[in-house]
Write a structure and sequence with these properties.
The complex is a heterodimer of chains A (399) and B (232). The longest helix of chain A has 45 residues. In chain A, strands 1, 5, 6, 7, 8, 9, 10, 11, 13 and 14 form a 10-stranded mixed sheet that branches. Chain A has a two-stranded antiparallel ribbon with strand order 2-12. Chain A is elongated. By secondary structure, chain A is of the alpha+beta class. Chain A folds into 2 domains: 190 residues, no CATH class; 171 residues, no CATH class. Helix content of chain A is 52%, strand content 22%. Helices cover 31% and strands 28% of the residues of chain B. The N and C termini of chain B lie far apart (41 Å). In chain B, α4 crosses α5 and α5 runs parallel beside α6. Chain B is α/β, with parallel strands linked by helices and 232 residues long. In chain B, the strands form 2 sheets. Chain B has a 6-stranded mixed sheet with strand order 6-7-8-3-9-10. A 4-stranded antiparallel sheet of chain B has the order 2-1-4-5, with helices on one face. Chain B has a single domain, classed as 3-Layer(aba) Sandwich (Rossmann fold). In chain B, a hairpin with a 2-residue loop joins β1 and β2. Classes of the chains: A alpha+beta (399), B alpha/beta (232). Chains A and B meet through α1, α9 and α12 of A and α1 and α2 of B. The structure holds adenosine-5'-diphosphate and magnesium ion (MG).
Chain lengths: 399, 232
């Protein structure tokens, strides 16, 4: 028992000496700390991109919405449904119905070229032809400025995200559709979801403009409840007139973003690990310097009878403290600068632009700080072991 | 009781070899030494002759390559690192040429340091450190940091730290080597008093004939062996 207390008080005092003499080693300590802060900031920022994209996708999805594509199609671009097929789908069981029939919106999905504001390069922007039910299906839909388009007229409304990202989407400007120029009459919000990156128009005017006859690409529909999905799905997949793949909206969006999420997360992790190596060397260097600056002190303590365990712990905890400070600084900086920062990237599934906000979540901050601590641990471990291994008599001579 | 004082330190046929790369440095060879309890022994010899090495062996800071070092009945060379550290803390007081005080601690806290290795309470530690500082005549400077003290004062703090655990053996490696004559004399007075009044056994390495004159016996180290006469 006294042994333990003894051990503990040794650790505390040896560590305290280290911390008290920290100001003398401020320069190299700050360098290591800022190095770690930089790594953590980059890591958190990059991973927050992936997180933000996921968040956008999640915001887009509603639990009682379904999306129906042609079977085999992995994106809306690749899908195709005839007018008849769209009608059979909307007759499926389990959908919400009102006087005018099921809440189902057969939609057309085409890509137009617009200039991206930041890079001034061409980018693919989705132009979606929708039916009246589209607004009941996306229940967070709201006109933010201007007005709704008139059914049957060549006019469009644009998502807030799209307007922010691309040139020429201000109210009153026009966009090129085929040979024509269609006016922008309104700007809409969709609860931060994917639709905010799109341009919407009446599907009935988009079909002739793109010579689609009476065909569509997808049907979006609203279920009576999330539990109605199996019934709806079974009915459609067993219908001999149809060859389609019904998915919950959440499932559809996560399949759309999975590739991108994995790519960015993988890249982010790679960058963090590579930079992390650099930071480990920085920390190692600092802690070796610290250990040699503390040689006299450590050797004296050990000569007086202090164990080497507390010496190791002291050096390690100093390194961990620097890393913790660096981690907190880096994570906080990433959060302050990037959280909510809006950007756009290419959705790998449709090759169209996805606007999203960096999402620096608490979970990411914790991961960033943990990463910093790992760097600090590795950076402190070897110098600590060296300090402890050195024979006392030799260490005393080095003064 | 016989008139022969028991020996505190027995060193028997000790070799000490350092390896530096592939080179072997034979510092001590077949060295014998007996130090009776209560002696004040001065060790002299040319620089690099192995005085510090010998002192380190006695103090359990290092182990002999060959032979036995027995201090207070303990075979010092055979203890594990951990037990050796505990043994040093209990039985040996070390005084260094450059004092080796902790710059971030006050004189009082520096002196308390070795007591952290005991199970004494905080207030008991404080009390003992105060007594040790009083013995070296530095009570009035107990809250001063080392950098605000003169060399002589710092060495007195060093001595207080060495005696605070009440060890039997004081090992001093050139304790006056970095001091002017006057401060050096004060330190020697102090060591002499500790030897005479408190019965401390002292081994002091020195270059200074003057300092050695304060000891009860002087031995000269040369070519790995001890002798009673200086060898040229
Ligand atoms: N830990 C060590 N490693 C290698 N060589 C050492 C070590 N300690 C002492 N020596 C060598 O042993 C010799 C004696 O050193 P030392 O005992 O310090 O001499 P002194 O104290 O008499 O000046 C020197 O040549 C020194 O270089
Ligand atoms: Mg020496």
């Amino acid at each position: 028992m006294t042994g333990l207390i003894n051990w503990f008080s040794q650790i505390i005092s040896v560590t305290a000496f280290g911390f008290q003499s920290l100001p003398k080693r401020l320069g190299s300590s700050l360098t290591a700390m800022l190095g770690i802060a930089g790594v953590v900031a980059v890591m958190v920022a990059v991973l927050s991109i992936a997180q933000g994209i996921m968040q956008t996708m999640e915001n887009s999805a509603s639990v009682d919405n379904v999306v129906v594509l042609r079977s085999g199609a992995t994106s809306e671009m690749m899908s195709g449904l005839s007018g008849d097929e769209a009608r059979y789908i909307s007759e499926g069981p389990g959908l919400v119905r009102n006087d005018s029939g099921a809440i189902a919106s057969p939609e057309l999905f085409v890509i137009i070229n617009l200039l991206k504001k930041t890079t001034r390069t061409d980018a693919n922007v989705p132009l979606r032809g929708v039916g009246p039910a589209a607004f009941e299906i996306r229940d967070s839909f709201k006109i933010a400025e201007g007005r709704m388009f008139e059914w049957g007229l060549n006019e469009v409304i644009v998502g807030v995200g799209a307007r922010m990202e691309f040139e020429g989407l201000e109210l009153g400007s026009t966009i090129p559709v085929g040979q024509e120029e269609w006016p922008v009459v309104g700007v809409f919000e969709a609860g931060g979801g994917l639709a905010e990156t799109e341009i919407w128009v009446d599907s009935a005017v988009l079909q002739p403009a793109y010579r689609r006859g009476n065909s569509y690409q997808t049907v979006y529909a609203k279920l009576e409840s999330p539990d109605s999905f199996p019934e709806f799905k079974d009915a459609l997949t067993s219908d001999p007139r149809l060859n389609v793949k019904p998915m919950r909206e959440s499932e559809f969006y996560s399949s759309q973003s999975e590739m991108l999420y994995n790519l960015i997360t993988g890249l982010g992790t790679l960058v963090a690990v590579v930079m992390g190596f650099g930071a480990v060397f920085g920390a190692l260097n600092t802690m070796y310097t610290t250990v040699s600056a503390r040689t006299r002190e450590i050797a004296t303590l050990r000569a007086l009878g202090f164990h080497s365990g507390p010496v190791v712990i002291s050096v390690l905890s100093e390194s961990l403290l620097l890393a913790l400070a660096g981690g907190i600084i880096g994570a906080t900086a990433a959060w302050a600068v990037f959280d909510g920062f809006r950007a756009a990237t290419v959705n790998m599934a449709s090759f169209s632009q996805v606007a999203f906000a960096f999402d620096v979540s608490a979970n990411l901050l914790v991961r960033g700080i943990l990463f910093a601590l790992i760097i600090g641990f590795i950076g402190g471990l070897f110098p600590a072991i060296r300090a402890a291994r050195q024979p006392v008599a030799t260490a005393l001579r080095e003064l | 009781m016989t008139d022969k004082v028991p020996n505190l330190v027995h060193i028997n046929n000790v070799d000490k070899v350092f390896k530096r790369g592939s080179e072997e440095i034979h510092v001590l060879g077949g060295l014998d030494l007996e130090i009776p309890e209560g002696e004040f022994l001065a060790l002299m010899g040319p620089s690099g002759s192995g005085k510090s090495t010998l002192l380190n062996l006695i103090g359990g800071l290092d182990r002999p390559s060959q032979g036995s070092v027995e201090v207070g009945g303990e075979q010092v060379g055979q203890l594990s690192d951990r037990r050796l550290a505990a043994w040093r803390a209990r039985h040996v007081g070390l005084v260094f040429q450059f004092y080796n005080l902790m710059p971030v601690l006050t004189a009082q806290k520096n002196v308390e340091l070795p007591l952290l290795l005991t199970h004494l309470s905080r207030s008991e530690r404080k009390k003992r450190a105060a007594i040790a500082l009083d013995i070296v005549g530095l009570s009035h400077r107990k809250n001063h940091f080392p950098r605000t003290l003169s060399g002589g004062e710092q060495q007195r703090v060093g001595i207080a730290r060495a005696i605070v655990t009440d060890p039997t053996l004081l090992l001093c490696d050139e304790p006056t080597g970095d001091l002017d004559r006057k401060s050096g004399d004060e330190i020697l007075d102090l060591l002499q008093a500790l030897n005479r009044e408190q019965g401390k056994t002292i081994v002091m390495v020195t270059h200074d004939i003057h300092a050695a004159a304060r000891a009860s016996r002087t031995l000269y180290l040369n070519k790995g062996q001890l002798s009673t006469e200086p060898v040229d």
